[in-house]
Amino acid sequence: MEDHPHEHAGTDTDRTPETAVPTLGDVLLAAEELWPESLAEDWDAPGLVAGRADREVRRILFAVDPTREVIDEALDWGADLLITHHPLLLKPVNSVAATTFKGDAVHRLIEGGCALLTVHTNGDSAVGGVSDVLADAFGLGNVTPLVRAAAGLPEEGIGRVGDLPEALTLADFAERVFGLLPAVAGGVRVAGDAAGLIRRVAVCGGAGDSLFDAVRAERADVYVTADLRHHPASELRERAHTGNGRPYLIDVSHFGSEWLWLGPAAGALGNVLTDQGFTAELRVSSVNSDPWDFVLTPGLK
Hints:
The protein has helices at about 25-35, 70-75, 100-110, 120-125, 130-135, 170-180, 210-215, 230-240, 255-260, 260-275; strands at about 45-50, 60-65, 80-85, 115-120, 140-150, 155-170, 190, 195-205, 220-225, 250, 280-285. By secondary structure, it is an alpha/beta fold.
């Protein structure tokens, strides 16, 4: 689409059926269709953080994190709406004074005319969500949720499990995972027999060590997730050694595991808006918001 000025006020002619510009309210309805907030975990806080429902939305930027650099990018591009996977205000706050990072973020977004919407665990559980995108990228078939959503459809829930079309060695599959994810300092960590054959794969974007019981119940050969902590991972490996050594573990970047979702999410939202007669420009952030800058490993100085 052609570039346009960063305008918020429009006329009635802007919203003709042929060239309608959506309001923030229109975009929120489309987002709810794709990622219902009813699918969010009880502890989560997705939804609209800042913005007026009647303001026009011409440009939408998708990102994993609402960091300073991401907000800079959104404002420099002239975005009317920033959609992030991670919430800015997950825990209750008593102030949004600009003296804090989060308060400053809220001020900069409002002053720049950019709304903020977060799609977190509802984006994980929904069909086409974070783990669905991972399962598709890894080439899995017969995919089902690891843990079904209590209030959702059978295909909605946290994590996914499915089967590779043919068995691969753990080393070859780990190489596939590494090649698909964005480059980050921490790389990819693997636990298990490099030559061991795997076929059944469990995945969970973001931190997923709370799903170990479901992974074992599904008899997965390998589990791909992020933020694996020492003690849960160690205990899982000890239990695995009493059987056939499964499941193996592949620990990836939290940011990387969720970054893959941004493109499909932007495409899905664009399709819904188009079907409803609206036109908006959507873009995926170019910012790598993984917090780590470099890593030292044996043999590397």
